[in-house]
Amino acid sequence: MKHFYVNIILLIISANILFAQDKITINHADSLVGKTVDGEQVREAVGNVSLTHNNLNITCNRVIQYYNLNKADLFGNVKVVQDTLTILAPQGTYYGNESKVVCPVGATLMDPKTTLKANYGVYLFSQDLANFRGNVRITDNKSYTITSDELDYYRNVQKSYARGNVKVVSDSSVIYSDNLVYEKLIGISTATGNVKIESDSTVITSKKATYYEFEKKSIAEENVKIDFLTEDAVVYGNYAENYETRNYSFVKGKASLIQMETKDGKTDTTFIYSDKMESFRNKPEHYIAKDSVRTIRNDFLSVSQAGYYFRDISGKGGVITLARDPVVWKENLQVSGDSIYAFFKEDVDDIYIIRSAFALQQNEIVNSRYDQISGIFMHIKFLDNQVNYIQVDTNAASIYFVYDTNSPNGANRSTGDVIKLFFKEKQVDKVNIFGKPKGTYFPENLVNTDELRLLGFRIRTDKPVRITPSQ
Fold first, then answer.
1. CA count, 13 A, side-chain hemisphere, 443
2. What would you measure as the largest C-alpha separation in the chain, in angstroms?
């Protein structure tokens, strides 16, 4: 029975000790005054105050302790320490039952990994969670800094949720957004709302984006715009992936490229629209467009299902390659074939058509008449931005209309191994035929424009128009 009572006493003592440990304890003060306010036990300690609660140590200049509420108002040089965590503030309130400190007029949180500052701060020790508001700034003092209006920081996993005027500065990028989640351990930032990612060679804007810091990779969604800073080029789309170290980007969903070239005071702009587009910014810089491809460069227009744009290494001009049902227009000239290659400096200089080559040119005087030429291979040479000659090799055939002082005067139909049409003032001026030449002249009274058509004649009306991307 004696041992039974001893055990009961020990249990009571242990319970009292545990209860006492959960209460805020004032360990030292230069002066200590106790009083009762509205039935509440209140103790005011002043001068070199030291408190403890569980594994927390608190120091300040002055404290008012509400014993029953297990709360302490802290004033002057407040310092709260838990292991490697330190919180500094001009004043604060510590709630023992919730293991929480609230700093209403500014706080600085420090640990070996991070420094966090704001105008207002709350820290929940049981959750290792900081909620800071007003001019928030968090940094690891090495590789990143986040500023925002409000931020939640989970110390154990080093994960930050930032809201309002967010800016993240790291070694490889600067990110702006309305909201952002930053996971430092895996180097991933997920941003939403007015997103902007700046890096060495690109600026990306979108509604949503994820940035992979270790890979220097960005994935952007909705109203995407990528500015290529070194190429005077902008790409738009609904979805994009950008790989900074590889100088490679992929865009899909109403993709469009705007490429500007300025030389000797003249600016030439290339527009390419497609469902999908790839950008390769290493030399030689080039772009690959796929599905519903439309190209506009000055008066050069084209449609196709695949397009390749190679910029000249000089930065002026280049080559546009078209495949899969391509068609090119230049003023009143229409060109088609299996594949088309257009070479530029400022304006187009040469167009090469490989297989099933067909060109037709509408007459400016009689709009119902089209000069035509077809064959396996075709080369169109331009001089001063006008057709100089068209040469067709293999199975060549042509129809061109004759005029006498701008009055219709019949038509010529010719075939041969090679046909070369020379133009002057947008009309056929001379014809050379090589290899088995044959020709037929149709006087004006026998001209039937519906019958004078080569195999493959088709007037295309799907010319591309310039589109302003929505942002």
1. 1
2. 138
Per-residue pLDDT, averaged over 196-209, amounts to 91
Assigned CATH topology for domain 298-465: lipopolysaccharide transport protein A fold (2.60.450)
* Cα 107 from Cα 53, distance rounded (Å): 20
Which class for 332: exposed (0-12), middle (13-18), buried (19 or more C-beta within 10 A)? middle
d(CA 195, CA 167): 10
For residue range 246-270, list pLDDT tens digits in order. Answer: 889 999 999 999 988 766 667 778 8
Domains of the chain by residue range? 24-105, 298-465
User: Which bin fits 30, alpha (ψ -120 to 50), beta or left (φ > 0)?
Assistant: alpha
pLDDT at 200: 82
Which class would CATH give 24-105?
mainly beta
Per-residue pLDDT reduced to its tens digit, 90-141: 999 999 999 999 999 999 999 988 999 999 999 999 999 999 999 999 998 7
Residue 206 buriedness (CB in 10 A; 0-12 / 13-18 / 19+): buried
How does pLDDT run across 395-414, given as a tens digit for each residue? 999 998 888 887 888 999 99
Q: Is the backbone peptide bond immediately before 284 cis, with ω within 30 degrees of 0?
A: yes
Nearest C-alpha neighbor of 147 from the set 128, 129, 133, 126: 133
Is-contact 251 231, C-beta < 8 A? Answer: no
Higher pLDDT, residue 221 or 8:
221
Q: What is the pLDDT of residues 176-194, one digit of tens each?
A: 999 999 998 998 999 999 9
Distance CA 144, CA 171 (A): 7
The answer to whether 24-105 and 298-465 have equal CATH topology is yes
What is the distance between the alpha carbons of residues 396 and 417, in angstroms, rounded to a whole number? 6
What was the pLDDT predicted at 385?
87
By CB atoms closer than 10 A (0-12, 13-18, 19+), residue 55 is: exposed
What is the distance between the terminal CA atoms of the chain, rounded to a whole angstrom?
Answer: 85
Task: Compute the CA torsion angle 157, 163, 169, 173 (nearest 10 deg).
Answer: 90
